[in-house]
Amino acid sequence: MGARGTGKRPEGIQDIIQSLTELLWAPVGGTSYSIPSIWWDEPLGIMCRLAWARQALDTGDNLTIEQLSLLSGMSIPRIKQLCQTGKIPAVKVQQGRSNRKEWSIPADAARAWLESRNNSRL
Predict the structure, then answer these.
(1) Is residue 51 part of a domain?
(2) Chain segment 37-61, per-residue pLDDT in tens
(3) Does residue 2 lie within any of the structural domains?
(4) How far, in whole angstroms, is CA 18 from its chain's centroid?
């Protein structure tokens, strides 16, 4: 099963993803690295983001709209619309020190929504 599936996930996925990004972007013998932002839209970057989203879901962390978008295969604007209309239970929370608020989707609500969506396709 992939990151979108319900099967067993690899142990230590966070460490695996971190090691992979360090391997790709850390200079030889370096102690830090900077990943170009465009890389996250490349296939391997998308796979890493998808794995992090799955990990958040599995560990019960709240998900962002982007993470639920990746897990569902739906666009970010569509997920945002579903949160705004209450079809996906979510709350707006302040991000960091900025005044900007982002949607936060509880893992149990995200899982229930994903399962109901998958069941309706059968």
Answers:
(1) yes
(2) 888 888 888 888 898 899 899 889 9
(3) no
(4) 15
